[in-house]
Amino acid sequence: MISQGITILGSTGSIGESTLKVLALHPDRYHVVALSAHSNIARLAAQCQQHQARYAVISDKAMAAELRAALHALNCTAEVLAGRDALSAVACLDETDAVMAAIVGAAGLEPTLHAAQNGKRLLLANKESMVIAGELFRKAAAEHGTTIIPVDSEHNALFQVLPENFNRGLAQVGVEQLILTASGGPFLHTERSALKDITPAQACNHPNWDMGRKISVDSATLMNKGLEIIEARWLFNARPEQIAVIIHPQSIVHSMVAYRDGSVLAQLGMPDMRTPIAHALAWPRRIEAGVARLNLADMQKLEFYQPDLERFPGLGLAFHVLEAGGNAPVTFNAANECAVEAFLHNRIGFLQIPSVVSTAMDSCKQGKIGSLDEVLEYDRLTREVTGRIIDSLV
Ligand code: NAD
Ligand code: MG
Hints:
Layout: E1 4-9, H1 14-24, E2 30-37, H2 41-51, E3 55-58, H3 64-73, E4 79-82, H4 84-91, E5 98-101, H5 109-117, E6 121-124, H6 127-144, E7 148-150, H7 153-161, E8 175-182, H8 192-195, H9 200-203, H10 213-221, H11 223-235, E9 243-247, E10 253-259, E11 264-268, H12 274-282, H13 313-324, H14 328-344, H15 352-363, H16 372-393
Parallel strand pairs: 1-2, 1-5, 2-3, 3-4, 5-6, 6-7, 8-9
Antiparallel strand pairs: 8-10, 10-11
Helix pairs in contact: 2-3, 4-5, 5-6, 6-11, 6-14, 10-14, 11-13, 14-15, 14-16, 15-16
The site of magnesium ion (MG) has 4 residues, from helix 7.
């Protein structure tokens, strides 16, 4: 067996840590090429030592010396690289066979897109990059023969139950609808009047999944599902009317594909990201993921409801964004990132997150997206506008 070289962008996060746990179960099959962190030097150094990484990447050049010292103290010989360009450099190394894109937010876009443009097998957790630059990813995949395997649990489920030739077009392969499940987050049954007092700690306390803070807040507002319908649009070349959302509080059915003949195929499993991570790493083979087995007889019930777009307006907004296309997903995502950051710093309330995003969407001009530079420019402009909107509220 030839060992595959894996680079993890964002190895110190929730997805990064889960990926390392899966890799550790298969030392003959995979080796770590590079690991990266934004600021957690101690964690990055410990990971590099434990997994014998060749390169350790830190975002901030000013932190390189401190990282070198931390590695030295652990007798770890990983080479230190620093700065944004270093992320793209390690993603595109010859030794890197596959890239786990696990940075949170639009900050992950450039190295993730560069990996796709270099034909690396792309294991995509960083949904925001697909949301804002889906067309560029589709183009890169077509031109460079890149395999993009979604790690987001819903999209990974869809990938598993779609026919392999889905890229010919969903209708051509008999698909009527992609049905994304949503847990509904921690406030599924909370009265709207009580939502305004939700604190960051409450919002980050998800009932089924243990995740980073940004995606936890997105799950609580259902903005996460909003981002995911746009992610699905690009990953599977789906039209807006081919995408639906259903609330499923137990997070056991990870998503479904409805076919023309009335069949509905679903992927089920415990809510543990190591399953989609292991699937993406090994596809088309199957490997041990280290997760608990699903025993349906232990489940009291599996429930399904229509989402309530009045209590969770962010999801309704996302369906408009899906229809609008162009730069709308960039604006939607950047405004949401700013609003979540402001909420996590107690600058705005929970219910103000979707209203800030909506105001930002109304204030930013519409346009088309043709290049990476245009994506980055719309992202920057939206952050300026949203910053002013937030300042006016606090
Ligand atoms: P996290 O906050 O736990 O980790 C984020 C990682 O990105 C960290 O390693 C951090 O150092 C790095 N990072 C943060 N900002 C950066 C920047 N500006 N530049 C470079 N690196 C930076 O996040 P997570 O929960 O692991 O999520 C990662 C991505 O995976 C997100 O896009 C999220 O939506 C997606 N995702 C996560 C889960 C989950 O269960 N956690 C599930 C599905 C999808
Ligand atoms: Mg998801």
